[in-house]
Structures are given as structure tokens and as C-alpha cells.
Amino acid sequence: MSPELVFQQALNGLSFGALLFILASGLSLVFGMMDVVNLAHGAFYMLGAYVALSVVQFTGSFWLALLVAPLALALLGLVLEPLLLRRLRGRHLDQVLLTIGVSLVIVDVIGQVWGREVRSLSAPAGLDGSVALVGGVYPVYRLFVIGFGAALAAAMAVVYRRTKIGMLIRAGVEDAQMLGALGVDTNRLFAATFATGAALAGLAGVIAAPVFGVQPGMDTDPGLLYSLVVVVVGGLGTLSGAVAGSVLVGPADTFGKVLFQDVALAVIFAIVALVLLLKPTGLLGRIRIAR
Amino acid sequence: MLVAAAAAALITFPYWSAPWASRFATTVVRDALILAIFALSLDLLVGRAGMPSLGHAAFFGAGAYAAGIASQRLATDQLPVTLGAAALVAALLALVIGVLVVRSEGIFFLMLTLALAQIVFAIAFQWTAVTGGSNGLAGIGRPMLGGLDFSAPDSIYVLVAITFVLVALAIWGLTQAPYGRALIGVRENERRMRALGYDTARLRLSAFVLAGTIAGIAGALSAYSTRFVSAQDAGLGSSVRAFVTVLVGGAGTLGGPMVGSALVSLIERIVPSLLPTELRISNAILGLVFIGFVLFARQGMVGLGRFAWLRLRRR
User: Fold this and answer.
1) Which residues contact B65 (CB under 8 A, 6 or more apart)?
2) How far is the C-alpha of B289 from the C-alpha of A185, rounded, in Å?
3) Do residues B215 and B90 lie in contact, with contact meaning Cβ atoms separated by under 8 Å?
């Protein structure tokens, strides 16, 4: 590979990693707080992309879509948490099973409403061009994705460390039950957490749409599959884990596809296997997912 | 006696149903039986050993691909070869994934089986030279046992039904044997089983490989039946379908996966014919039914049946 190609693929990998961070941070947050792996997270991501498609179709504004889709998903999360998950509070595995059902319903509804063809969404004006970079041209939108992911991570870190909400999140991840005993309304806290996770998935869907496509199957690949891989590799329930996982998995996947084409995912398989065998908490996590 | 009669009736279904049922009925029952074998193997993990796998389709797919590829590359139609290849490849894959996942439990086990199996699926999907990629694998050889040809619709049905009966008997025997009891012990209280001297990690791994092997056989039967392997057979959708089948029927019971597969087949094959053709929502219906069972009847249909039976007897 020429140095120019390496540089370009590194940027591709980073932009994929930035998208993975937006996607996986929501999954990780919900798990950290509620001990539930939301298997509908990929379906939420897909729904975000399709809602964006319609918003752009009707208003022509990508930026409005970037606002509306996460809000719509947050609303869905606010409805689903009390409607389904709350009924099985404490039965974590059964709560996870509920999200499988939710995912089946959402994906079919999307197919029914928006059709089952591959769709596309173009990057907003101003970000749809290319810039010259290190002996080649590079799409501006991908740089925007990297910047957006980094800014979101920074913003989340500030909220996490410096605000009252962040304090609640840290306490909830530590011990949500104790937080309830101390007088925090855990019903509201969990509903808000689930809604935030859904909103982040929806946000990832909008951000992804112009580069990673809008099509059937996106709920699993990249949606659910890659967000699970990121949290397993990086570590569950911590912000730094989500960052580490996405920064590693994004480029690894991209270079794997360049170097090994057909069997690229073997690289991801190997990374997951190595992490499981050597560091069962993930790189920066605290929860052991294997003995 | 009753079981033998039921098994005989099931195996000969296409012959005695011919006067009043269509060929479509035989196809539906055949596919339901393949799903039942698949679900029975998954229940060995989910229901007996307490290992909720969401990646079981990887082994179903591995068996289907192995049977197809073996028949093409080795240019043979012989069942012992192609079915043997299916079982072997599925078992090896289950061993590789199993080593990585058996040290995890509950939600983590579920996450890891999903992720690793889905990666295997994605490799199969992209490795066009070997698996045919998104086009699937067509032109699977006819299943032959010596001079016996099982390729006609009625005879392939008989092959599937016989396998189903054998698998159900084997699993029933297994659950009665000390091995099956030990698996339930692992599910109920793994620490106590370890204290009693059982190597629980090995027990869990052996269950994972055994279940994977049976799923591979189900996959091969599916390949013979449709003479085609679709990449989707190995994907998350197929894993979820098997999981829903087990839970809706009733996990940890022999009858559960069977009645579950009947209900799922009903939803997938019969309900769409009652709805307008532009409404393709069988997965959504499946999802809603599943949510209903998880919320209100976690023991599945078998559990509901037992409950109703107890209520009736008490009167």
C-alpha cells in the first residue's frame, strides 16, 4: 500500500470508528445503568436513518433531520421502557429477550412503511464536496463524521464528570438500587436512560446515512453487530471503553477489508477472541463478561 | 406404544394425507420438522443447560453449507458423506466458538454467541468463492443412501421425519441419563456442581458442541429439502427464529420446541395467506407473540398447558 492509500484508509477507519462510538455509547450507557443489553439498538439505529430520510424528503434539511430523528427515537424509548421493560424489573435476561421482540416488530414496520429497497441520503450542502489531503482528494463529510464523533465524546465526558446528571449516571452505573434507596426516582431515571440510548442510536443512524447507506439489514450489520463488538472489546458501561473500542474496531475493520477482502471479518473475530481470552473485562471496562 | 404409533403416523404423513391434503401441506410439515430439530438442539442449551445462545444459526448454516459443498466438491450424493460433513463442520465450528463463550453466562453469553456467530455469517456471506455469497449455494446433490433415492418430495419428507424422531428420542434419552441431569445441575447451581467434582466448563462445552452438531444436521436436511442454501439461513434472523420457537413452545421440555415450531410455522406460512399480499409482517407478528410470552407466559405453551391441566384437575 502506498502511503497516500494508508492515510486515506486510516481516515476511513477513523470515520467508521467515530460512527461506532456514537452507536455503541448508547448501548453501553443503557447497559451500565440498567444491566440490559438492548438488542433493539440496531433497529433503533435503522429507524433513525429512515426517519431522517423522510425529514429530508419533506423539508430538504439534513440538519433538521439530525434533530428530529434522535428526538423521535427518544420518544419511542420513553414509551417502550415503562410499557415493557419496567414490568420485568430485575429480570435482566427476560428484559433483553423483550428487546428481541421489539427489534422484530420495528424492522418489519420499517419495511412496510419505507419499503425494502436500498435508499440513499446525500450529505448536506457544504459537506458534500471533497478536499485535497496528502496527495489525494477526500470527502468532507467523512471528516465531519470524525469531528462530530470526537465532539460528542468530549461533550459526554464533560456531562459525565462535571454535571449533576453525570453524577447520577456514575452513581447509577455503580449501584442503581442504592440510588433508588437514596430517594432518586429510578423509574424516571431508567426511562430517561433508555430514551437517551435510543436517541444516540437514532443520531448514529442519521450521521451514518450519507456514507454507510440506508438499507434493509443495516439493523444487524453494522448496527447491532458492531456496537456489540465495540462494547465487548472496549469494555461495558464506561465511556472510555466505548471510545477505546470504537477507535480500535473502526480502523481494524477498514484495514481488514483492504488487506483481506473477503475474509476481512476474521480480523474482527480474532480481536474479539483475543480480548475475551486475555482481558475478559474489555480493554477499559470493569465488568467481567467471562470468567 | 403411543409414541411409536405417533412416530409412525408422522413419518407416513404424505401417504395417508394424500387424499385430502395438498402437496403444500407436506412441505409445511417438513419445514416445521426441520425447525423442530433445530429448536430441540437449541433447547439443549437454552432450556437444559441454561445457556441462552443467540448464535445457533451459525451451526445450522455451517451444516447446510458443508452438506452442499461436500456434495459438489466430492461429487457424491451419498448421505453418509454429506451428512457426515455437515455434522463434522458444525461440530468443529461449535468447538471453536464454544471455547470462547462457555466461560460466560446469561446476558454476556447471549451477547457473545450473537456477535461471534454473526461474524461467521458475515464471512460466509462475503466469501463468494466458497459459499456463493449473497446468491446462496444452488445445485445441492440429491440425498442418496446406497441405492435409495430420497430426492422426491415425499421421500425427502420421510428422511426429515425419521431424523426428527431419532433426534427427539436421543434428546429424551439424554435428559434421562446422568449427563442430562448434570446439565440441569449446571443450570440450577453451577458452584455446587463444581463442589461436587463436576468439570462444569467441560460439561457446558460438550453441550454446546452436541447442540451445534444437531443443528448442523438440521441445516443439512434443509439443504436437501430446498436443494439450496441461503446465506440468511446462517444469520441472526434464523437464530432469533429458533430462539423464539423454543421460548414460545416452552424451554426445558421435549414438547416445547415441537409445539413452538408448529406455532411459528403457522405464523410464517399460514397467516400471510390470510393477509393482503402487500402486508409482509410475519416477523412483526412473531415479535409481538414473543413479547407476549416473555411478559405473561415465560414457561411457553407447554407451561400454559400444564397450568390449565392443573386448574382443571383441581375442580
Assistant:
1) B89, B124, B131, B137, B219, B223, B229, B234
2) 31
3) yes
Tell me the per-residue pLDDT of B75-126, one tens digit each, with 9 for 90 and over: 788 888 899 999 999 999 999 999 999 988 888 999 899 989 988 888 888 8
Element (H, E) at A131: strand A130-133
A236 phi/psi in degrees, rounded to 5: -85, 140
Chain A contact present for B196, CB below 8 A:
no
Neighbours of A268 (CB within 10 A): 22
Give the DSSP H or E segment for A286. none
For A114, B14, B190, B191, B245, the CA distances from B198, given in Å and listed in that order, are 54, 46, 9, 10, 31
ipTM for the whole complex: 0.92
pLDDT digits (tens, 9 = 90+) for A41-79: 999 999 999 999 999 999 999 999 999 999 999 999 999
What domains, with CATH codes, occur in chain B? Answer: 2-314 (1.10.3470)
Indicate which of A30, A86, A100 best probes the interface with B, i.e. most B CBs within 10 Å of its own CB. A100
Alpha-carbon distance A125 to nearest alpha carbon in chain B (angstroms):
34
- Is residue B279 within 8 angstroms of chain A, CB to CB? yes
CB B236 within 8 A of CB A220: yes
